[in-house]
Every structure is written in C-alpha cells, then in structure tokens.
Amino acid sequence: MAEKEPAPRFQTKSAYAASVLRRALAEGRYAAGERLMATQLARDLGFSMTPVREALMQLANDGLLEIAPHRGVRVADIADDDLVDTYVVRAIVESAAARLAAARIRPEEIAQLRRVHRQFVDAASARDPDVARLRELNEEFHFIIYAAAGSPLLRRMIRTAWTSSPRDTFGVLPLKTARDDHGALIEALETRDGDRAEDVMREHIEESAKLLRLFKKSKRKH
Predict the structure, then answer these.
(1) Are 145 and 180 members of one domain?
(2) What is the rounded distance in angstroms from the CA atom of residue 40 to the CA atom of residue 38?
(3) Are 76 and 69 in contact (CB under 8 A)?
(4) Cα-based distances in Å from 67 to 33, 93, 163, 214
(5) Is the alpha carbon torsion for 182, 29, 214, 76 positive or negative?
(6) pLDDT beyond 90 at 194
(7) Percent of the chain whose predicted confidence (pLDDT) is above 70
(8) Residue range 167-185, pLDDT digits in tens
(9) 24 is in which domain, residue-wise?
(10) Half-sphere exposure of 28 (CA within 13 A, CB side)
C-alpha cells in the first residue's frame, strides 16, 4: 500500500482507505484469519487513526473483516453459504457481461485480450508459476471483457462480487482449465457469438466455485 494521498474521486479519507483495503483483500494480500493492525495501516496510508478505523468498520459491516473485543481486527473467512451466494451472483453478472461484450467489443480490445492471454499462458507454463502474476493477468483479462460490455453499472457490480471472492483459485483451479477457458472466450468474442461467450463464462465461474468448495472441505479434514 504505497499510495499516500487520496485520489480526487474519493470524498473522504475513510472512503479512500476502505478502497485501498478492499483492493488489498481482493488481491489476496491478507489471508483469512490474519490480524490487521490499525496503527500500521494508518502509517502505510499516511492517515490518522480515525479514517482508518472508519474504513475498518465499513469493511466489517460488509462482512470482509471481523472485529471482536480483545481480539482486534481479522480478515473474515468466507462461509460456505456466502461462497455459494458470491459465485451465484458472479455467474449471473459476469456471463451477462460476456454476452454484451460479444456484441460491443472492439478489435483493439480483442488484441488486448490476446496479448494478456499470451502472457498468462507463458506465466502458467513456468516450472514454478508466479501465482501473484497469474492473479494479476487473470484479473486484467476478465476486466477487459467487462469494460468491453459497455455497462459501468455492471462492471461495478462485478468488482464488488470479486472483492467478496477468494483469490487463491490458482491453487485450486487447474491452470490448463483457466487457459483453455480464456482461449474459448476470445474465440467466442471475436466471432460475436454471445450465446457461446455467456456459456463459457458461466461454466468457468461455476467450475471455480465447485473446486473451491471441494478444496475448503478437504482442508477442514486435515
């Protein structure tokens, strides 16, 4: 969290702090159950404690953090029911965005998708893949599609759903599956096949949800 000054679009420091923390949570910088120190966050952001505390309360109200007496602030673990709900919403809104993108995507956006996809394939082919880099490329790939859909409201809804999703899917979802799904999405978008783009995106997200549930269940057994 190197940024020190609030961006102009944020009306308050607490709103900016909440945005930075949401992003950090979405990128998997903090593990479930990890304790967050308000004093350290305030130093990182260059803020006083008040806006940071307000931001933490906001994220706790959103279910992303847990605040308990004598235990402080911890990153919330996503319950199974919440995980299901999140991925149901994601499957709906992201498949809708893929359908819209198939009708509206521009040639330069297809070129961007192909460039990011090549980078993803190269990163996934490494002997010891850089998971953080894969997350970054995966997000860039998906949000090129969501921007191409031409609906700022839909894109905001998707961003909110992503913030509530686990970001460790590349420890669970086979990289070959992600690679193949991304390739199929490019093909569907390039041929303006909205039905296919919608189906591939929905199946991609539903498969991720299924494998994550199995992964969480196996972890509880050990």
Answers:
(1) yes
(2) 5
(3) no
(4) 11, 30, 18, 28
(5) negative
(6) yes
(7) 84
(8) 556 555 678 888 999 999 9
(9) 13-75
(10) 14
In terms of domains, do 170 and 90 share one?
A: yes
pLDDT tens digits for range 16-30:
888 888 777 766 678
Tell me: do 147 and 190 sit in the same domain. Answer: yes
Domain boundary among 41, 58, 75: 75
Per-residue pLDDT reduced to its tens digit, 32-87:
788 999 999 999 999 999 999 999 998 888 777 888 877 789 887 665 566 778 88
> Does residue 5 sit within a domain?
no
CB burial of 58-68 (b: ≥16 within 10 Å; e: otherwise) equals: bbbeeebbbbe
What residue type is 203 in one-letter code? E
Phi, psi angle pair for 22, to nearest 5° = -60, -45
Q: The CATH number of the domain where 213 resides is what?
A: 1.20.120.530
The CA distances from residue 75 to 32, 132, 204, in Å, are 5, 19, 27
Tokens for 64?
């992303």
Count of domains observed in the chain? 2
The beta-carbon contacts of 80-83 under 8 Å, at least 24 apart in sequence, are 80/213, 80/216, 82/164, 83/166, 83/209, 83/212, 83/213, 83/216
Question: Which residue shows structure tokens 């931001």?
Answer: 55
- A 10 A CB-CB count for 186 gives 20
